[in-house]
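Subgroup meeting minutes
Present: P.N., E.W., G.H.
Scribe: E.W.

1. P.N. recapped why we're keeping a running log of single-chain structure predictions: easier to compare across weeks, and new members can see raw inputs and outputs side by side.
2. G.H. added today's entry (339 aa).
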Amino acid sequence: MDVNKSERAVTLKDIAEASGVSISTVSRILDDRYPPSQTENAVRVRRIAEQLGYRRNVYASGLRRRESGLIGVLVPRLTDAVMSLMFEAIERAARSRGMFAIVSTCGDDADSQAEVVESLLDRNVDGIILATARVDDAIPERLRQRRLPHVLVLRSDNASPTVTGDDVLGGYLAARHLIDLGHTNIAVVTGPTFTSSAHGRVNGARRALTEASLDLPNDNIIFTGYGIEAGEDAAKELLNRENRPTAIFAANDNLAIGVAHYAAQLDIKLGPDLSIVGYNDIPLVEKLSVPLTSVRVPFDHIAEKAVDMLREENPHSATTSFIPTLIPRKSTARPRGKS
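Output recorded in log:
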């Protein structure tokens, strides 16, 4: 058979005839669920398939295995840089494993989340990755009851399979950095009370302060949203006090940007007058006029583990945590008056 690209769709039979092997042999060699064989025969079959212009029919092969090759990803919103970074990492991890990730947004409304999950399931996704798990979210429990494959990322409900950064350690590293610079009056601005990440980062900061024999008064902890405006509002409360903090750990980079923006309105200089640590280390923060110290979260490692866990036949329910890293920049410095 002449090995030329045809105008019609190339089939396994075409490749088998060109290669002189059986259709089942071609199917096995081209099945990307397994590591590619490097035998002479396998290399020749893959080369002929490429020359013929063969494209694997993911949908048809999925039907045969009762798989679609699709992963559903649920995020609150894609305008949040962290959610965008997380989805992009999941999409890369899925694609490298011969799968395809589709994303849906649902905001923070429980009914909307449930509706979007059902919509993804109606599209025959093989499983769902949830970046929306609230501590009071009923969706993971429903998925567990229906034995539907799912993995939580960045947040935990202490029951479903979960992959996250170590929020407690991240909060500890942020506060420890500020303590080591000589700060004693430290405040924490964190996310909504319904998120495990908000509580974990506060708990880590509190642990670091306790170890240093420092207090973290309740009025120095502000639970709010994860947006820039929420950071501005928190800064208004903290920076207009007579005994304002000399350092703020903002448990999200957007919060940190909001705090920094309001501080600039008061002519408070980042570093010397007010140290700020953010969280997640989104690409923007190192480009700011005063580059932001931030706790870096390994999104790619989290995504790869989540996709692999989703593909397991019986995924365990334990939480896998990856170690975050503190990235110091100019937004943190020793407080004035301390050498």
